[in-house]
Amino acid sequence: MADIAEIIKQINGNKELMAQIAKVDPVQAKELLKKANIDVSESDIKLVQEAVADGKLDLGDIKNIAGGLFKK
To answer: Which of 16, 27, 53, 71 could in theory staple to 22 by disulfide, Cβ–Cβ 3.0 to 4.6 A?
Structure first.
């Protein structure tokens, strides 16, 4: 499992990429991230997509995502 919080930090500055990831299916999102030199499994893509879907990602969201991963 990838570090979702780290992935989100990497794409957080690129609002266009975040918007694209939120709209496409997981396979396409994986390809978009791959082009940005971020390797993510398809299972982790859904977590990333959920986090960026509203376009209002903040540090609290990142902490919640990271906290959820550590509980697994």
So the answer is: 53
